[in-house]
Amino acid sequence: MSALREGQLPVFVFPNAITFCADDQATHKQLLTLYNPYDFPLMFRVLSTSPRKYVVVDPEGTIKSRCCVDIVIRHNAVSSSNCGITDKFRIQIQEQGRHRTVLGRRDVPALLVASAAELAPSGGGQGTEGTEHFEQLPTPQPGNLPLLHAQHYALDARGGRLTTSHNVTVMAAAVACFVALMLPTDGERSTPLPKYLHLTVTQKMIAAYILGLVTMVIFRA
């Protein structure tokens, strides 16, 4: 690891862009999953071009080897004046130790739109450099957001399976995601199901991604 140079190590994060919808409170909180497929632990730090507009619990920490961490990001300034503005988060990984050399970075754009109808595809950049000024995010006071702490998961030697999962849990997750994809999308009217069973496009995208991961686990088991 000592031979690695600054910015040389690829950073694996999903999704590569996040979108908040002002009219959908469920999207005001988003997850970024940061993966460490390497054989050594890494330190991570989350920076932002607009740190006052967001709350990020645990904006820095450590990821063990072959583990991943869910980083919770909440938009703290949802208003019409901020719609259409794209901010950026920079995920920066460092080696452990006194010097903490920056090994890699990845920028993830974050867009606030008025409604889901305005959603448009956008991409993030791997190790991009620009004129943006990234600042450190403030750490929330302990106890303010007890349910939003970053969650860590361990991956097995093949890099794709949660070591703490059981077959029953995996199958239940697959069924739940499949059912979620079968539910009507928010805005559909020709359905007898109540409104609380209508999922947003973002929620269905998350369900589809999780279903894909679970399917890989099932076939590799």
Automatic annotation (TrEMBL):
One of its GO terms (cellular component) is membrane. Its main location: membrane. Keywords: Membrane, Transmembrane, Transmembrane helix. It is a multi-pass membrane protein. The keyword Membrane applies. Residues 120-141 are annotated as: Disordered. The chain crosses the membrane at residues 168-184, 196-219. InterPro entries: Ig-like_fold, MOSPD1/3, MSP_dom, PapD-like_sf. It is found in: Membrane. Pfam families: Motile_Sperm. The keyword Secreted does not apply. It comes from the Eukaryota. Residues 11-96 form the MSP domain. PANTHER family: MOTILE SPERM DOMAIN-CONTAINING 1, MOTILE SPERM DOMAIN-CONTAINING PROTEIN 1. This is Motile sperm domain-containing protein 3.
